[in-house]
UniProtKB/TrEMBL annotation:
<keyword id="KW-0560">Oxidoreductase</keyword>
<feature type="domain" description="Aldehyde dehydrogenase">
    <location>
        <begin position="36"/>
        <end position="480"/>
    </location>
</feature>
<dbReference type="Pfam" id="PF00171">
    <property type="entry name" value="Aldedh"/>
</dbReference>
<dbReference type="InterPro" id="IPR050740">
    <property type="entry name" value="Aldehyde_DH_Superfamily"/>
</dbReference>
<dbReference type="InterPro" id="IPR016163">
    <property type="entry name" value="Ald_DH_C"/>
</dbReference>
<protein>
    <submittedName>
        <fullName>Acyl-CoA reductase</fullName>
    </submittedName>
</protein>
<dbReference type="InterPro" id="IPR015590">
    <property type="entry name" value="Aldehyde_DH_dom"/>
</dbReference>
<dbReference type="InterPro" id="IPR016162">
    <property type="entry name" value="Ald_DH_N"/>
</dbReference>
<comment type="similarity">
    <text>Belongs to the aldehyde dehydrogenase family.</text>
</comment>
<dbReference type="GO" id="GO:0016620">
    <property type="term" value="F:oxidoreductase activity, acting on the aldehyde or oxo group of donors, NAD or NADP as acceptor"/>
</dbReference>
<dbReference type="InterPro" id="IPR016161">
    <property type="entry name" value="Ald_DH/histidinol_DH"/>
</dbReference>
<dbReference type="InterPro" id="IPR016160">
    <property type="entry name" value="Ald_DH_CS_CYS"/>
</dbReference>
Length: 496
């Protein structure tokens, strides 16, 4: 158990003796009353007072762009981040263990999350070196010599999601600070403890006030921070509803930059000409990796009616092979769900689909034991069901039969989401005919493969309500900065 009694603010690990939040793992233990989620630790429930102190520390460290950090050379900022990576590596084992216990991610995927985050930080450093080299060049146009720089934006409020509590927090936090901004971050409700072993590293590697943490209940501390008008950038990977509500609280919303990764309902389109075996393998990965709790997961599958029965038969057989178990068990891919209310919500989706004519077609589909939910394949799904539009963010695979490709295309056009789509077809002309209409609806079209964020050097964004701004390495560095110019006329007085 980890009983965290400190938080990082203004360069100090501040002691906390107030209220704490109890953290229960999705991993259950037997008790006299049956299976119960295991208590694995506690963390501070700070009040608005501490949150404002942390915000003021970030504001002071930025000092209207005149602080030590925003004026530090890029090379020196990179050195601080490199020092941080070394200290982060020392904490790998404990962080990985906490990812497993706090959110129920398998050992293999927890290690992957950690390693991928470190690789992302190295890639960010390389990309920044390129940007910095460009900034030292001069451009001459129409008698004006100019140096184009990338300058920071100010104070960033950073919030990550529970499904990638380390990776998705750091893929915004690191680009934000390395560009010279100062920051306060609130770890996700499920996935807070795992940040604790890294706080000391932040304190040691960065000047005071550059990185500050806020703990506690988001709905009591975050609105006040937004209303203060002192936040220049809001970055959040989470729900569209929360992001919209927070943005509205800012007194000068036109001066707020929002970099957001939001809800998604990615679709697979499996045509008559698809390689069904491949489509099934990728659908299983896309829909059920980390129990479907990925913003990039496939959340609805359209299959041509002529191949639907065969697809369902193969899909059912593949799902039956997946191993259910605890995160540390070898070869496990289905694990307990961290959100306590998720099993009830998934049950509601299944019942609603059944009431409108679909069936759970796989044995044990939807069976729930406390935090475990066995994946359910629902067929045939139609537009009267919740699962047709709502982002289930869990192990349910809604399958919709179609007769004409205009049906899934129409679905994507009407959808309020616009992150990704996967097309499965072995016919080049058919694929080519789908790319143009689809790439104008979503931000990534995948051909004969599942939807995913990676490789992480690729831009990561979404259309419509699925994102604002673009993340991933070079794009993230651009998102957390502004292009600015130092320009001079080529005159006698400017010749030096
Ligand atoms: O939840 C959204 C993540 O960025 C997804 O990343 O596609 O690599 O699982 P992933």
């Amino acid at each position: 158990e980890i009983h965290q009694r400190e938080y990082l603010s203004d360069g100090e690990m501040k002691k906390w003796d107030g209220n704490v939040h109890e953290v229960y793992s999705p991993i259950c233990v037997k008790t006299a009353e049956g299976l119960k989620r295991k208590l694995i630790g506690t963390y501070p429930v700070c009040t608005e007072k501490e949150a404002f102190e942390a915000l003021d520390a970030a504001v002071t460290a930025y000092d209207n762009g005149r602080g030590q950090w925003p004026t530090m050379s890029v090379a020196n900022r990179i050195k601080c981040v490199e020092k941080f990576i070394a200290k982060m590596m020392d904490q790998k084992d404990i962080v990985v263990k906490l990812i497993m216990w706090e959110i129920g991610k398998s050992y293999a995927d927890s290690v992957k999350e950690f390693d991928r985050t470190v690789e992302y930080i190295y890639a960010t450093i390389d990309a920044l070196k390129d940007i910095d080299r460009d900034s030292s060049r001069f451009t001459i146009e129409q008698g004006i010599v100019a140096q184009i720089r990338r300058s920071p934006l100010g104070v960033v409020l950073c919030m990550g999601p529970f499904n990638y509590p380390l990776n998705e927090t750091f893929t915004t936090l690191i680009p934000a600070i390395i560009m010279g901004n100062t920051l306060l971050f609130k770890p996700p409700k499920h996935g807070t403890l795992l940040h604790y072993p890294l706080l000391e590293a932040f304190r040691e590697c960065f000047p005071k006030g550059v990185v500050n943490t806020v703990y506690g209940r988001g709905n009591t501390i975050i609105p006040g921070l937004m209303k203060s008008g002192k936040i220049n950038v809001l970055t959040l990977i989470g729900s569209s509803k929360v992001a919209n509500e927070l943005k509205k609280l800012h007194p000068k919303v036109n001066r707020l930059r929002a970099i957001l990764g939001l809800d998604a309902k990615n679709a697979a389109i499996i045509t008559q000409k698809a390689d069904l075996k491949l489509a099934v393998q990728e659908t299983v990965l896309g829909s059920l990796s980390f129990n479907g709790q990925r913003c990039t997961a496939l959340k609805i599958v359209f299959v041509h009616r002529s191949v639907a029965d065969e697809f369902i038969a193969q899909l059912t057989a593949e799902v039956a092979k997946l191993k259910f178990g605890m995160p540390w068990e070898k070869g496990v891919s289905l694990t307990p769900l961290p959100e306590p209310n998720k099993p009830a919500y998934l049950k509601e989706c299944i019942e609603d689909a059944e009431a409108h004519g679909a069936k759970v077609v796989n044995e044990h589909g939807g069976t729930t034991v406390e935090s475990f939910v066995y994946p359910a394949i629902l067929y045939p799904v139609n537009n009267r069901m919740k699962l047709y539009r709502e982002e289930q963010f869990g192990p349910l695979i809604p399958v919709v039969p179609f007769d004409d490709l205009e049906e899934p295309i129409g679905y994507l056009i009407e959808s309020t989401h616009g992150q990704q789509v996967s097309i499965f077809s072995n016919n080049q002309e058919e694929v080519a005919s789908l790319i143009d209409p689809l790439v104008n609806q979503v931000s990534r079209v995948n051909i004969n493969c599942q939807c995913q964020r990676g490789p992480d050097v690729f831009p990561f964004t979404g259309r419509k309500d699925s994102a604002e701004g673009t993340l991933s390495v070079v794009d993230a560095l651009r998102s957390f900065s502004i292009r600015s110019l130092v320009a001079a006329k080529l005159t006698e007085s400017n010749k030096h």
